[in-house]
Amino acid sequence: MTKIIMHGCNGRMGKVIAEMVENDPDVEIVAGIDIAEGKASFPIFTDINACDVEADAIIDFSSAKAVPQLLKYATDKNLPVVLCTTGLSAEQLDEVREVSKNIAILKSANMSMGINTIIKLLKDAANVFVPAGYDVEIVEQHHNQKLDAPSGTALALADAINDARNGEFTYVYDRSQVRQKRDKKELGISAVRAGNIPGTHEVFFAGPDELIEIKHIAYSRSIFANGAINAAKFITGKKPGMYDMSDVIANML
Ligand SMILES: NC(=O)c1ccc[n+]([C@@H]2O[C@H](COP(=O)([O-])OP(=O)(O)OC[C@H]3O[C@@H](n4cnc5c(N)ncnc54)[C@H](O)[C@@H]3O)[C@@H](O)[C@H]2O)c1
Prior knowledge:
Layout: E1 2-7, H1 12-22, E2 27-33, E3 44-45, E4 57-60, H2 67-77, E5 81-83, H3 90-99, E6 104-107, H4 113-129, E7 135-142, H5 152-164, E8 170-172, E9 186-193, E10 200-206, E11 211-217, H6 222-235, E12 241-243, H7 245-252
Helix pairs in contact: 1-6, 2-3, 4-5, 6-7
């Protein structure tokens, strides 16, 4: 049984995780931490330093501002952290790496098992199709409330392909300003923002006689919660260092 402290327990993700854990006999939330009011079947602390409950790991879905005190708490208590909060500054990312010398930290901007498995598949696909001269394009679609474009996930997919090809690609987000054929070393990334479209990512490998499409649709936040719970089980008892979802997936194979 993995005992979890849920940091940001009253937020959207915290609540989905609490619900999911109810149906998982292998994990338990033993305490929650949140500055906002909320009710749960476990004790909730508004001040992280007041939390004295024994646990195996912390799952964090809170706010970038809350991360420094979380890292200090986790170091003091010698607890591994599944760090899911996004939007960390460059200094905060440095701090995360520094702290990982003392505790295990698993960080991923997208906790979905589906997206992370696709990232793994893309590396092989890129090494087959790019040398064969296939063009690579990514199209992502989201609801009309999303602020950033392209999505961080689209960039992570592009990076997986580009890393596998030793950085040979230039990302192209807009073809409206030049009138010329695409170069083989371009990786086009396009964003659609409309209505209530669920987060959708498509990667195209397009050759002369075939089109390979790899597509992922996120129908709910549960996919991130599921990944975070798997990550918490994985990171329990791990030695200090930085981990990511590829380690969780590798552990399942
Ligand atoms: N990595 C992923 O796959 C993934 C997926 C979804 C969301 N996220 C990220 O996770 C974070 C949370 O997302 P959300 O949708 O649940 O947001 P949310 O705003 O609904 O919830 C955040 C919660 O954290 C709490 N909080 C804020 N400051 C705190 C502090 N100092 N101490 C304790 N609690 C604090 C808030 O009160 C709130 O209840 C965001 O950064 C989001 O981008 C990551």
